[in-house]
Fold these 4 entries.
Entry 1:
Amino acid sequence: MSFPSDFLWGGATAANQYEGGWNEGGRGPSMSDYTTGASSRTHRLITYRMPDGTTGALDQMVNQGLPERAEYAVVDGYYYPNHTGTDFYHRYKEDIALFRELGLKVFRMSISWSRIFPKGNEEEPNREGLEFYRNVFEELKRNDIEPLVTISHYDDPAYLSNELGGWMNENTVSLYERYCHVIFEEYKDLVKYWLTFNEINSAVMILAFVPNMPNEVAKTCFVKLHNQFVASAKVVKYAHEHYPDFVIGCMVAGMTTYPLTCDPKDILMAQKRTQDLFWYAADVHVKGKYPSFARRIWRQYDLDPTFFEKDTEVLNEGKVDLFTFSYYNTSCITTHEGVELDGGGNLSLGAKNPYLQYSDWGWAMDPDGLRYLLNELAGRYDVPLMVVENGLGAIDELEADHTVHDDYRIDYMRAHVKAMEEAIEDGVDLIGYTPWGIVDLVSASTGEMRKRYGVIYVDLDDEGNGTLNRYKKDSFFWYKKCIESNGEDLG
Ligand code: BG6
């Protein structure tokens, strides 16, 4: 048996995509509340209103900036899927009962910052918001499920982002600290596992797939990221000092970039891409300092090293206890001309890998890549690892008898569980697995419902029609057996 007996089998979600109740319980809006639904062919839009009442929409992927005097707004005629998510806010008891039946040991969820501090800068938290999560954590406890809480998952208060300068403003660090101090104290007896920021490296990953980004905009990505590193380090240190039982980790978007050919120039290119977009963030979190190649990156973007180096001590004092990451796909890059970049992925773009199969959304399915990445991480770091997102976004068919025959998802999960098992046999200290969107939820990139990851089906479509009823897919029964047998029975 390869999986340790206390292996944390689980499932993952995020408030902005799952919770709903966007304007209930005193919650303030976050940017996802102004973001429309889209599809794999169209980009999501962010809507706004002018003082004269006229409205408009910006492409989420292109940094156009708001027209002068415009304000982000919910505008008639658009559909905002994150407003409802899949309604965990009202259905958490029903969902937690399903998680128990499934056998989950751990449930990854996030707290919506604007439910606790609606604008981000209040002196006192919103008690109703605190009560909601207390109820959820108590319900999880009653069901013997350990929460794994992401403190910030693409869900900053809109006011903080738009009026207070967001992560460009160093003062946001202290607002984040205040938020963390409140939730740590409030839930200290209910939550042990915490993650400071979801996919923190997403701030710079966009550099690889947004074409022609002006250098001035690219520079801001590194500044925002640095301020988040500082915020993370400060609350990790605070947690270590005040709550020694906490396990506090980072969450980095797992990125494996293969060279498309064995041309040494391709090898170097893939190495550099991985340094820039993955190790840069991972090393700061785990080693508590910027890696040697950071200076090359700062030079490349004409960034002043003293800005990053002024916080050397803070970063060193806030090293994480646990390294967690998302893993969906791998990508290939090349220096060679004329190669089409038609292989998509989570925050990534590259050439198609002829040895791999692709999902309906063009993401490469690569379980060996997971084993490879786990080994890379274990060789570099001395902290336990956890895969906190993984899964296949696919179109599911709900049959008349409310079954869903998702063999493709079972195949994907089985292959990735086997890859984790092999990695453990390789010597990797892997402590848990929380597949993404264990209950169907809104896609982050497209806002679609039809891109489903769950083992639990939710009756809701891309236009917001549906009962929101939950149904168990075939993958539910497969995963249940996998958990019961601690990864032995993979059917
Ligand atoms: C990760 C995010 O990037 O990938 C999740 O942490 C997201 O929030 C997931 O949902 C899958 O991406 P998508 O775009 O298919 O929802």
Entry 2:
Amino acid sequence: MSDVTLTTLLELKQRGEKITMLTCYDATFAATACAAGVEILLIGDSLGMVLQGHDSTLPVTVADMAYHTAAVKRGNKGALILCDLPFMSAATLEQTYQSCTQLMQAGAHMVKLEGGAWLAESVRLLAERGIPACIHLGLTPQSVNVFGGYKVQGRGEQQAQKMLDDALALEQAGAALLLLECVPSELAARISRAVRIPVIGIGAGADTDGQVLVLHDMLGLSLSGRTPKFVRNFMQGQSSIADAISLYSRSVKDQSFPAAEHEFRA
Ligand code: KIV
């Protein structure tokens, strides 16, 4: 696989080829995911839950993210490396610059921030300084205490219109990528059509420009014993982790994943 860049992602969207993204936290999985054709490796702050055993992503620090980003970079073979800005690491502009410096110097090619149109100024300033931003909309896990749980977002016309307006404002500000989590499929499709930049979905139906899953979820591993509706266990019927990740990548490309059973409706 030749190096994946923002231009590659835009071209994939333009020609209607689905983009594959997977969370990844270390060098061995990075190399395995690259061999399977995964185009974006996300060092998600989900590592707070799946690696560290916390019950939310809130305890994760920038140092944790930088450590895992450096490990992923060492195993990476051409994927684009996207790294989450963890809880409260971008609360002020000064903090945002400091956090991004650490993550980009550790090996990230792009950073991900959770939030809406209020992030437009940060996105613009980061782009001017050479840092592409992905914005995570919908169910943003760092706001679990505001939402009162991990709930589908964007139901009802008012909420849907607000999410669409956020997406358009963030694209206008210079966001390079959007990620929609736990959003009704109709809304995710509407947003994906409305913006020129690629939109990656998780629990957002089949009509986004690409898909992401948490690595442990798609391997059928769960600390809580609960599997979210939008997850498929790709280990089923496979004899190795490498085969399961290849099947994930192929299933995103041939659009057999996600299926109707993985979607939320309005
Ligand atoms: O932290 C993470 O793994 C994420 C995914 C759920 C998209 O943000």
Entry 3:
Amino acid sequence: MQIIKSIESLRETLKPLQREGKTIGLVPTMGALHDGHGALIKESVKDCDVTVVSVFLNPIQFGRNEDLDKYPKRLEADANFAGSLGADYVFAPSVAEMYPDGDPLTMVRNETLECLYCGAYRSGHFRGVLTVVSKLFLISKADHAYFGEKDYQQVFLIEHMVKDLNFDIKIHRVPIVRDATGLALSSRNEYLTDDERKRALAISAGLKEAKDAYLAGEKGVSKLRDIVVKSIVLNRGQVQFVEIVNQHNLQKFSGVLKPTDKIVVLVAAFFGKTRLIDNIEFN
Ligand code: AMP
């Protein structure tokens, strides 16, 4: 396992491997790695000859009042963890390396979908994500890239970008990894107190309850939505949004669901000061 900090040295390292015909897998992360990231790394190691894990806390995807400064940082431990799973390189550039002129003047946007759901509350977030992911794709020239379904809107937007802009890379979605209690793993779970962590189970429990109700015949969008909202509110969480949306285009459903509808429920909620997201597909 080697930590690489400059764009040029990553390119120089990968070039001969690519010339030999080796396939490169990229796992973009913001660090503070956990088993959710681990699942992405394992998939890449399984599929690709060489796995690069990027660890970059991307300032342009954080709003002014968000947690950029307190986000957990532990590069050495991250590199050891990634290496133990078979990753070959950790690419950990500085902010100056990625944005030598400050915030880039050229950004990648999806003007239609960037304002929905998470984007409605995190202005500029998705253009920051799409811009840094584009840079990582272009720098690494990876053949495969791995993203978690925990960030459902994010992976959807990245798939769209790859299609819209003809990036020559295959995007792999990896299912959400949860702890034994059902809480979706997240670097931000470290902010939770023990009490908040217990109460935050209301998110995954509410999603599961809604799915069970759907499978038992409940097809009313507002009824299904209310199940999730109620679970969170009863546990003193603060709902930011709960939306029942179409897996194919991320548009909201309303009224009564049809048997052919492909459904995902997207949630963002606060427990204490910590914002958590989660989702579940119904079919
Ligand atoms: P982050 O470091 O939070 O930006 O996440 C980096 C990648 O790991 C993203 O593609 C996330 O969707 C993915 N990821 C984070 N947590 C999980 C999880 N619990 N299960 C699956 N993937 C995850």
Entry 4:
Amino acid sequence: MSLKRSTVKELLASQDLDREVLVKGWVRSRRGNKYVQFIIVNDGSTIHTIQAVAAAENFPEETLKDVGNGAAVAIRGTLVASQGKGQAVEIQATEVIVLGAADAEAYPLQKKATSLEHLRDIAHLRPRTNTFGAVLRIRHALAFAVHQYFNDHGFYYVHTPIITGSDAEGAGQMFRVTTLSADKPPLAEDGSVDYTQDFFGKQTNLTVSGQLEGELAAMALGSIYTFGPTFRAENSNTARHLAEFWMIEPEVAFNELEENMDLAEDFLQSLVKYALANCADDLAFLNEQYDKELLARLHSVADNAFQRLTYTEAVEILKSAKQKFEFPVDWGTDLQSEHERYLVEKHFKKPVILTNYPKEIKAFYMKLDDDGRTVRAMDVLFPGIGEIIGGSQREEDYTKLTTRMAEMNVPAHDLDWYLDTRRFGTAPHAGFGLGFERLVLFVTGMSNIRDVIPFPRYPKNAAF
Ligand code: 4AD
Ligand code: MG
């Protein structure tokens, strides 16, 4: 019987010693002397490495010549209590097979630390670093926790389309999807591009949000969520924006703004708690390496109620703030991230949920407040991040909704399917969108959103 491969994670946790084991992974380093060589191996199952000890009498130097940084190896041996400090167990190697050598001179991940900027250029190899291994494992854990939370709370996962025929929500910042020739598209008689000859017989784009379709599903299934890629062609070259990012959008029939806030707060706190409980080693590494306040901040967000206030109240606070802002604040203007971060990091020192924004700066579908000036919007603002969630109670009244659409030049004929939910059995409902990468950014304590997705897309960059 051939020996089954064990992961490094399994071996490090094992109490079952003095047995034969097989481990496969990538060499992080090799060092030693003329009597013994230590081969340090990581296989991605954990941030930790296992040490294999190769005695020179069994492994003359030429048998180990390809066992260098970055090489893929299979090591067979006996799992024993470690003689050295720093690890509980190690492998006394009996066989070392090089599955794939790595040219030591050319290997881009050298022992000395490499900047995050440089690692972005070699994003195909950066998962092999401790930092990106940790980030990717945490990203996975958070994605799993999203599904677990909603499943436990009676929500159904709905797959909304990625190619969309309506550009209602994100007019002007969408990526076009077409099979027409770029340099010689077919023209209509008036000289404009004839999209009836395009693949779908009309103009189509990559979606900016699954919300509108999510609302349709919520008006049948009650509680739903989407979790998929979204695309925005806004030219925001910031540490908080990606052109391709993942969004989680729950939508709940019969919920109003208050319940929407309760859901957002409980959901975010559960996700942070899940990471604290399940990603301890990776978080400890990131806390040590990048941000000594990380764990304290995560516990604080998980355990303390968020501050809730209206946009109008926030504007009052900002106007009387001692701090000078680059952008002046006045009722009716959209808040900039400097304002959001002042409220969260300086004034309240905890996450903030801002509600009831002026209708002019929010989307057409948000429910109008009784004063006719504000809408039942809510943004959740996080320390170090700014806006992490945007959402609202939706306008369920057909007349009010179509009036808003006309005022905002949203073409109603494109959205008759959306309006049908307001014609047939309309009901209050509410939802929000959580930017998944902003969540991963918060939980990992990384400072640039390009470092929390495997292959980031941003202006002038679509490598890999
Ligand atoms: O506030 P947004 O634009 O809201 C919506 O799209 C609604 N349809 C959501 C809903 O009510 N169902 O985006 C939601 C969140 C933001 O709060 C932010 O976290 C994230 O998506 N986000 C981005 N993340 C990374 N890069 C970008 N360019 C982002 N734009 C928005
Ligand atoms: Mg928003």
